């Protein structure tokens, strides 16, 4: 886990996404190569946008109930939540610049 990201679990998920602060949740797994490629960009983005965007990483193997609840079928899947509601879904690896563009309407 990065130093700027938060670890999500089935137990704390509702609390994490319930904030008015936009929350980007990365659904990932240890065995997923593209997921590992996202670690650096997500951690950097979390640091750059601290106070404007929370970045949560949720391991789907360790927290299957939440992944199933949100219909995560392939990883990496990233979902932006605000006030507990899904606002945007991104499937597949992206560069930091692409991620920043995707979340720009939620921050700032």
Mind sketching the topology for me?
Elements: E1 6-8, H1 13-17, E2 23-28, H2 33-48, E3 54-59, H3 64-69, E4 77-82, E5 85-91, H4 96-103
Parallel strand pairs: 1-3, 2-3
Antiparallel strand pairs: 2-4, 4-5
Structural account:
This protein has helices at 13-17, 33-48, 64-69, 96-103, and strands at residues 6-8, 23-28, 54-59, 77-82, 85-91. The chain is 32% helix and 26% strand. It has 4 helices and 5 strands. It has one domain (6-99): Glutaredoxin (3-Layer(aba) Sandwich), CATH 3.40.30. With 108 residues, it is of the alpha/beta class. It is globular. The chain has a 5-stranded mixed β-sheet with strand order 1-3-2-4-5. The longest helix is centred in the middle third of the chain and has 16 residues, at 33-48. The model has no long low-confidence stretch (mean pLDDT 95).
């Amino acid at each position: 886990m990065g130093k700027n990201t938060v670890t999500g679990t089935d137990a704390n998920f509702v609390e994490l996404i319930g904030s008015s602060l936009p929350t980007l949740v990365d659904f990932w797994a240890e065995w997923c190569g593209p997921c590992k490629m996202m670690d650096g960009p997500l951690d950097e983005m979390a640091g750059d946008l601290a106070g404007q965007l929370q970045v949560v990483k949720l391991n789907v193997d360790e927290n299957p109930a939440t992944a199933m609840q949100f219909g995560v079928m392939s990883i990496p899947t990233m979902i932006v939540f605000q006030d507990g509601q899904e606002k945007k879904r991104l499937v597949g690896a992206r560069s930091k610049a692409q991620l920043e563009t995707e979340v720009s309407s939620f921050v700032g």
